[in-house]
Amino acid sequence: MSRVNVMLPYLGEEEVEAVAEVLRSGWVAQGPRVAEFERAFATAVQAGHAVAVSSCTTGLHLAMVVVGVGAGDEVVVPSFSFIATSNAVRYVGAVPVFADVDLATGNLTAETVEAALTARTRSVVVVDQGGVPVDLDAIRAVCDPRGIVVVEDAACGAGSTYRGRPVGAGAEIAAWSFHPRKILTTGEGGMITTSRGDWADRARTLREHAMSVSAVDRHASVLAPPESYDEVGFNFRMTDLQAAVGLVQLGRLPEVVARRRELAATYAKFLAEVPGLRTVADPAWGESNFQSFWVEVGEDYPLDREGLLERLAHADVSARRGIMSTHRQPPYADLAAPGSLPNTEHLTDSTLILPLFHQMDETQQGRVVDVLVDAGRSA
Ligand SMILES: *Cc1c(COP(=O)(O)O)cnc(C)c1O
Predict the structure, then answer these.
(1) CATH code where residue 283 lies
(2) Among the listed residues 62, 50, 68, 150, the one whose alpha carbon sits nearest the alpha carbon of residue 109
(3) Positions of E strands within 107-259
(4) Atom of ligand 1 nearest to the CA of 188
(5) Looking at the structure, do residues 39 and 158 belong to the same domain, yes or no?
(6) 155 C-beta closer than 6 A to ligand 1
(7) What's the pTM value of the predicted model, to 2 decimals?
(8) Does ligand 1 lie within 6 Å of residue 161's CB atom?
(9) Does residue 265 sit in the same domain as residue 367?
(10) Could you read off the pLDDT of 146-195 as tens digits, one per residue?
């Protein structure tokens, strides 16, 4: 019996060949493949502009800069997220203000966001947590009239839908992750998408040291024009090696999402009959890619979350504790009053993430289901 992993990237010979082709071309840093990946990604998520970056974390950092968030500003974020969401706010000297999430979706709501707004709020970062689409329109209806920019952390959201369109399509600016834990991977990598051409242009310049002439343009001319650096920029570039992989992966996305939704439906069907377990589900306004398939272990279940994780480990099934509460980590511990984020803490403490990956077969999924069903019987 072999281990069932919580996640496996889905990579094949096409990706190998795409990387080999880039290597043979001799142009390995940001170049034509990155530009091609940006165009394809913008089309896929129905965004006006796409700017490739080195990760979602650097993408969020850059989003904060182009949106104009700076020292002393407040940015409303979910504590219930990977810590990078809050770290991006800190990088620009702003203060994260934690809002609680909805128990059903694990996402911010218009109500929890509104309760966290102050005169100093400059921006709100919403997350499509685990792939579950956030109700962006409802949150923008609260923020837009106040001049507060909503940034979408769509790290987990590629291939999810919101009100019939791809997640991110309705965002002024969104950041995406291509880490192997997400469903489209380039090893490391990320993307910013935005409806605003001026923000895209600024992000494009800032990701490359704020250089007035891009490396690609310099390469195109024998006698390169002199460049200038009008502000302090970054090196947040993606490489053509990564973009080549991303192009192949993007082509697989519909197939990968369809398979994940099929596996999620199987989990939902078998676990619905187990008292005390609740599985993540699509919200009324969209469809999840089920990047993370989580289960809440309730009072009626014979084991608590830790007990169930142990039972799964005994069966060589690698599950994971649910999404973290950022406010419990040392850099953020002074930013939330005790008891102020009850849903966040409840979900962090009572959920676990089950294995789900493209290549998962019926036998593997059956092994996971059996552990949960059997443990549910043995009070
Ligand atoms: C994974 C993740 C990130 C960080 O993505 P990287 O590409 O690894 O920097 C940020 N936000 C959320 C919600 C994530 O899940």
Answers:
(1) 3.90.1150.10
(2) 150
(3) 121-127, 149-153, 161-162, 165-166, 173-177, 190-194
(4) 7
(5) yes
(6) yes
(7) 0.97
(8) no
(9) yes
(10) 999 999 999 999 999 999 999 999 999 999 999 999 999 999 999 999 99
